[in-house]
From TrEMBL:
Pathway(s): Cofactor biosynthesis; thiamine diphosphate biosynthesis; 4-methyl-5-(2-phosphoethyl)-thiazole from 5-(2-hydroxyethyl)-4-methylthiazole: step 1/1
Source species: Urochloa decumbens
InterPro entries: Hyethyz_kinase (IPR000417), Ribokinase-like (IPR029056)
NCBIfam families recorded: PRK09355.1 (NF006830)
UniProt keyword terms in alphabetical order: ATP-binding, Kinase, Magnesium, Metal-binding, Nucleotide-binding, Thiamine biosynthesis, Transferase
Function (record text): Thiazole kinase involved in thiamine salvage pathway.
Record-given protein name: Hydroxyethylthiazole kinase
Enzyme Commission number: 2.7.1.50
Gene Ontology terms: biological process: thiamine salvage
Amino acid sequence: MDDAAKEERDPAWWGRRAWSLLSAVRARAPLVQCITNLVSMDVAANALLAAGASPAMVHSLREVPDFTPRCDAVYVNVGTLSEDWLPSMRAAALAGRPWVLDPVAAAASGFRMEACLELLALRPAVVRGNASEILALANRSVAASSNFKGADSSHESVDALEAAKALALSTGSVVAVSGAVDFITNGEQVVGASNGVPMMQKITATGCAVTALIAAFVAIEPSDALVAAACALAIFGLAGEIGMESSKGPASLRMHLIDALYCLDKETVTSRVKLSLRP
């Protein structure tokens, strides 16, 4: 085992790496273009600002040629998908900047699945979804069962781990599966992120917000999207844990989570981030 591999198996290394990336986001304020859904714009923008990044909710196709090449990363989210926005998503993905895809409710319809698969072919650096979304993409299948839950997952993250690895290998993207434990894989390595609280699932668009944060981290570390995505997921989950300490329910957690993300310090991140390289 080489020195780099040994380091990645050390939990303390992950804490230091997470703090290093968050510090770099705060210092450099990467500009992240967000072509995201109407439900998530507010929380995604505020999460990016709290972390130190600069969000730009720019989705007009006419602005992409001028604006997108000047961005540090692009975030594409298909939550409130419409045919009018698809050309902008495609153009932004092709603009030469590192970009991240959130395939919200990919299995909801044939139109949505077709759009997600078309975007996947444009090689996002990271794909972040819940277990049901990743399983649907890997199987290229539209939901037909009565258990379909829209944007919510009807599977645990571990259920989609093998599908995530296969999807990563077939697309060349890092694939992140959110759940009680988040799994992040490039098809060969798998990182587990265990930060977070169940109440975060009761807040609309927390998944969308963490994907936006992944884009900011990828902007800082485009050559290692696996580490960038894992650290972003752990940082966001840690902010949720800290926010929960002062919260009474989902509404107050949303506020306290954003505050916690803004206030994170080196000691807290390095001691409380829960990341590990899985066998």
